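Retro notes (design track)

What went well: tokenization of the new backbones is finally stable.
What didn't: we kept losing track of which sequence belonged to which structure.
Fix going forward: every design gets posted as structure first, then sequence, in one message. First example under the new rule, 114 residues:
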């Protein structure tokens, strides 16, 4: 017989013997003990963790401010004066620090149908 299978069989037998034993307390005695424990205040409620939650939120805000630098998407490299302002109807989006994307919002489609 396989040694691991033998261990499994012994475990099953021990489990069956344990399950066959009568309980130490009947249901009424067990429920009375639980009710007495609840009524005596043996279980203390934990205070709300509002302080820890606020401290954690503050740390997350500080970390976000450090690692996610805030900058306007309309500001190019070098500040607002580095790039001339686009004409009316043209939107400028900065893809990265050196790449502006100019979008003409007033363009009309010119094709064979026009």
């Amino acid at each position: 017989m396989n040694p691991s299978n033998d261990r499994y069989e012994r475990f099953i037998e021990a489990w069956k013997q344990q399950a066959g034993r009568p309980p130490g307390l009947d249901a009424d005695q067990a429920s009375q003990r639980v009710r007495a424990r609840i009524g005596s205040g043996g279980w203390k409620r934990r205070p709300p963790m509002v302080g820890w939650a606020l401290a954690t939120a503050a740390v997350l805000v500080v970390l976000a401010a450090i690692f996610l630098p805030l900058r306007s998407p309309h500001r190019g490299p070098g500040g607002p004066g580095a790039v001339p302002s686009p004409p009316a109807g043209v939107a400028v989006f900065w893809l990265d620090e050196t790449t502006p994307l100019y979008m003409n919002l007033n363009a009309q489609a010119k094709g064979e149908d026009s």
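Added context from the reviewer: The two ends are 88 Å apart (CA to CA).
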